[in-house]
């Protein structure tokens, strides 16, 4: 055998002997460690078992609130569109060169305000001519009347023939008719002259103008669009199954049906309360809905034409409705339920029927609860049927544990090891 293999065998033998010796020396310590770990695991299992030596059956702190009775308004909700009360496109009524624009875009204008001016010189000349013709014919009428009166005195003496008297009377009648026609022509010319001043037909807000001064406009030229926004309309639709409810409330209600317009987030009303004005006379067969229109005074101009709003139509008021916080209602596989506080300070799952929302934070319950029942509003995620609870009022918080309570809790979780160790030392 070569020297290399002899050295190799010696090294292997030394390693084997050393490994065996190491296991023999450390076996009791390892066994002790595994025994301690086993005891700790067993103590932990006991502590985790309900009712065990380390069990913690303290009640769960939850917030509870009693049901309350109140008059609850019932609303139907929909998405509505704000529509102007009047929308007028202003066109000239005579043709001519546009001299001036007397409004600013977006400006509020009043009915009768002059918002534009067309060159009036041609129309002024026509009016003056008509007035002059009227004056001329009135003078001729005066002459004819004087002639008739003068000849009526002479006809009795035979100085004037009766045939000539007929001519004089006819001349007077003819001139009277001519003067009446002249007056009509003068009024027509005056109207055309007045049309050179383009006036606002409504109270409203001016939009963006469509023509600039200096352009020749005709009766088909659009100057600007005026929109009346005070008051203003909101048009919305409801499903046809609500038609009977709305019609009965609209026709038989003592008061007008109130309508509230909210912003897109349902956060706050956009204007003072409006009132339902019209229920449409037909149902849309395509969508199965019917239209309604409400009117708002809109004093602050918060509602704007074309704006989308959330609409709440108040159809009736439930007297003595049962109201609870909305956060108390939980949804389960069998429907809505609440955790109801029992006399023994435990909770039970109580199915409920929600009839509608009351404001932003409460709901009305039609079935499942009675007046005075207490329901859990916070802390439901820690509960199950039969859980023991510590009922707190809204705004209350559970008291912080004291040092002695913390020591007792540690004593229970430790499985009494501290006491056992002290007893062992005394023995």
Automatic annotation (TrEMBL):
> What name is this protein filed under?
Efflux RND transporter periplasmic adaptor subunit
Q: Tell me the organism.
A: Dyella jejuensis
The domain of life for this entry's organism is Bacteria
Q: Main location per UniProt?
A: membrane
- Keyword Signal in the entry? The reply is no
Domain Multidrug resistance protein MdtA-like C-terminal permuted SH3, which positions? 322-379
What are the Multidrug resistance protein MdtA-like alpha-helical hairpin domain coordinates in residue numbering?
A: 127-196
The entry assigns this protein to a family as follows:
Belongs to the membrane fusion protein (MFP) (TC 8.A.1) family.
Multidrug resistance protein MdtA-like barrel-sandwich hybrid domain segment(s)? 86-222
Q: Report the SUPFAM superfamilies cross-referenced here.
A: HlyD-like secretion proteins
Q: Where is this region: Disordered?
A: 33-61, 386-427
Q: What are the subcellular locations of this protein?
A: Cell membrane
Which terms are listed as keywords in the entry? Cell inner membrane, Cell membrane, Membrane, Transport
Q: Which residues form the Multidrug resistance protein MdtA-like beta-barrel domain?
A: 231-315
UniProt-listed NCBIfam families: RND_mfp
Q: Compositionally biased, Gly residues: which spans?
A: 417-427
Among its keywords, does the record have Electron transport? no
Q: Which Pfam families match?
A: Beta-barrel_RND, BSH_RND, HH_MFP_RND, RND-MFP_C
